[in-house]
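User: Predict the structure for this protein chain, please.
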Amino acid sequence: MAEPIPSAAYEYPPLRGGKLLFLTAAIATASFMEILDMTIVNVSVPSISGSLGVSNSEGTWAVSSYMLAAAVMQPLTGWIGRRFGEVRTFVTSIVLFMVFSALCGLATSMPMLVAARLIQGLVSGPMMSVAQAILLRNYPIERRGMAIALWAMVIIIAPIFGPIIGGWVTDNLSWPWLFYINLPVGAFAAIASWTILRGRESKIVKLPIDGVGLFLLVAGVGCLQFMLDNGNDKDWFNSPVILAAAVVSFISISFLIPWELGDKHPVIDLHLFNSRNFRVGTVVIGVAYFGLSATNIIFPLWLQTTLGYTATWAGLAVAPVGLLALIAAPLVGRNMPRMNLRLAASFAFCVFGGAVYWTSTLNETASFSQFATPRFLQGLGLAFFFLPLNAIMLSGVRPSDLASASGLSNFVRTMAGSISTAVTVWMWNRRTDYHHTVLAEHIRNSASGWTQYQNSLDEQGIRGTGAFAYVDHIIGNQAATLAVNDVFFGLACIFICLVPFVWLAKPPFTARGSDAAH
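Assistant: Here is the predicted structure, written as structure tokens:
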């Protein structure tokens, strides 16, 4: 028999034994599935693009559209959970996620795939935040530290398996199975969660929603993302469509800020930025995720389109980033009360900068281990980045504002990742065109090097237009590699430049911050 719904969520006794273990497995599975879908498509972009007859830059829309939609929904998580109940929100989110995962797999064109991914992102937006709240609400207080450790392990493990699973599925099955595998996983998570929690619903409170703010948010962020995704293909502001998107985005965001500051129930509570530590932490985390997302999308694209890696091997080259993090994260979490959190975050950015700079020095002659080693070392930075910066960010936030603060920081982080996908692919394309032009200038009869190379090609039976096509292919690969080096060098500089900004945060980072993080 289901337990009666009490007037407040805290009146439920914590779960113990098999029920707690089963619930933990269900929530971890759902969270793993949601995070996995942010990374599993990255290594499969070339395959998806080729199958649907679009360019690789258009193929990245399958990544950015999902992240954009999830970002828009995250600030609404608190309102949705209070209005409909956290348990109903969580289970409904999983079921709808499964439905639109199936539609993604059935897509026969890029517009259809992008539309399905967009809605998939919308329904997944509340899943993570509500899952964390449910997990903590049903754990005994003395074991909530372990709950957070399990949560962190899921967040770290999913990005490891995402590229590997994505690559293997793409090479051995086909890209639609990237989405079909969500169906049995989601079914288990939804059934298990509802079976255990259907009598433990949170208190339902009917609050008004800021409709004007929501409209401005969707219009501003949506048009911004459309502009970034399509600007390169449509010649940017020479296109009336791109110009219109830029104008709508600018006007919407310009009106959104004062509206949210004055509304009693804002979609985005901008007053939280009055807290110095929240302001510093949110901005630093957003910029850092911009850089991390850029490396995760550009690196596998380059390996496949330029160096001839399969999706599986590209995934294996990307995956080591989580291995050291998996080992170090529990140690960092256990010793955080004794750590200088600003020093820990600074160390993380130095590791990120060093690893990404190392990658910027590699070229097409590098071996698999040379590509994987910097990624492996980069994982050490993840352990010192995630937990300390979240504790810094939430240390100045009142307990009553923690839900809003988490939603806003997740929104900034996800938006940074979404914008990063569009911006870095554009940068890579632009730098590739630049390097191709510079290298091609040496292909002229007056250049002694070209004459000698022509002679060597002629001895191999490659002559005439075939020689020019052969050389153009080589130049294209070299240009793409030099462009990747430029992008990674820029990202390394961004990580290093974040170090002084971390020190703008003001101690003490009290226990309230740690509780917030929990």
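Residues 311 and 503 are 40 Å apart (CA to CA).
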